[in-house]
Amino acid sequence: EPPSLKSSKLSISQNLSTFTCGTVDSPGIPPVTLVWEVPYGTVILSKTYVHGNSELLTMRNFSGGVYSCEVDDSPAAECIPPYERSLWKAQLRTDVQSLEKDPYDLTRIVAIVCGVVLLVVHIIAMVEISRNKKTKAQSMELEMRQSWRSSIIHPPDSGGDVVDQPKRVASTAL
Length: 174
Hints:
Strand order of the largest sheet: 6-5-8-9
Helix content: 25-40%
CATH topology of the largest domain: Immunoglobulin-like
Structural class: alpha+beta
CATH architecture of the largest domain: Sandwich
CATH class of the largest domain: Mainly Beta
Distance between the termini: 138 Å
């Protein structure tokens, strides 16, 4: 059984210090082996496939350069038709900076933690302000009710003389 690719050809992608070559649909029987060649010339054989991909984990201090991945010259590779052999080769050129980038460096971690702390403090402050407003509104309402009740029971003194209203006398008809 010849090996087959999921995509039209092999490709290499990089995520920090991990390079991925793939995607192999079936390594065939006998299975083909992908060979990695790294900038300093070492050839690394890879028989492990993760979701159809061959992964190469590099050290952070690797130099930039060309990384390549292709099928080795084993008898299993002979199952690949000659016109498809070029589809089983991939290269990726990297620079030193791309290998040294680390999204979890100390500066970013500190910035993320500070942002989260500020967000939590802001939420707590908003909750407390909301509670204080509610408590203040309730106490003002209670004060107004008590004031209203006391004004009904004890009306305020007008401060002036009270004028007696004339009493009506019932008239008798003669």
